[in-house]
Amino acid sequence: MVATNVKAETVSLMDKRSALEAEMNAIIARLSQPGAPGLSGGLVDSEGFPRSDVDIPVVRAERRRLAELRNDHNEITEKINRNIQILHSARLENKSSLFKSSDTQTSLTVGNVASTPSQNVLLRHSPNAMDVDVLISRPFAMVDEIADASPAVEDGLQLGDQILKFGNVEAGDNLLQRLSSEAQSNLGCAVPIVIMRQGTVINLTVTPRPWQGRGLLGCHFRIL
C-alpha cells in the first residue's frame, strides 16, 4: 500500500515537473528570440541608459519567474529521485521475500509428496509483486541558446532541450569542459545524445562541424 502511494505521488510529481519545464521553455524562448536580451544579457545600452528596444519590467519579471521555476524544478526532481530510491528498494525487498518463500514452499511440497503419495499436493505462490515502471533520469544540462542554421538545429536540437547524455558525458564535475572536449574530439563524427523534450526522452545524433557561426554546434548548454 505504501509503495502504491509512493508510485502515485511520483507520477503526480513527474506531471508537475513537465508543466514546469513547459513554462520554463516558453520563457526561455521569449527571452532568446531575435532582439531579446537573452537569459542574462544587459538591459542598459553602451552609455548606461535603459535599453529602449526592450520592455525591461517584463524581462525582469520573466527572469524572476524563471529563477522561481528552476528552484521548484530542482525541489521536485529531488523528491522524484527519493521516491525512485524507495520504489527500487521495495522492489528488491519484494524479490528477496519471494525467493525465500519459494524455497520454503518447495521444501514443503517435496515433504508432502513423500509422506502422502496418493495426494496431489500442489502449492502455488502468487506474489503480489510491485511493478515499478517509473524510471527517470536527471538531466544535467539544458540548451538555453541556439543559433539559426547551426549544426545543432540541423541535427534536431531545439531550444529548451534537456541533456541526459552527450556522447560519453552523462553527469559529474567539469561538465562544460567535458562537453566541449567531447564535441572537439568527435569533429565530423556523429555523437549520440539523449535528450528530454516536454517530458519525452528522445535519442538523437549531432555532428560537431565548422559552420559560419561560433563553435562546432552553434548552441550553448547551461548546466542544471
From TrEMBL:
Q: Keyword Chaperone: yes or no?
A: yes
* Top-level taxonomic group: Eukaryota
Q: Which GO terms describe its biological process?
A: proteasome regulatory particle assembly
Under PANTHER family, the record lists: 26S PROTEASOME NON-ATPASE REGULATORY SUBUNIT 9 (PTHR12651)
* InterPro entries listed in its UniProt record: Nas2_N (IPR040815), PDZ_sf (IPR036034), PSMD9 (IPR035269)
Q: What is this protein called?
A: Nas2 N-terminal domain-containing protein
Stored Pfam families: Nas2_N (PF18265)
SUPFAM superfamilies in the record: PDZ domain-like (SSF50156)
Q: Origin organism of this chain?
A: Psophocarpus tetragonolobus (Winged bean)
Residue ranges of every copy of the Nas2 N-terminal domain listed in the record: 12-89
User: Which GO cellular component term is one of those annotated?
Assistant: cytoplasm
Q: Which residues form a coiled coil?
A: none
Q: Which UniProt keywords apply?
A: Chaperone
Q: Does the keyword Coiled coil apply?
A: no
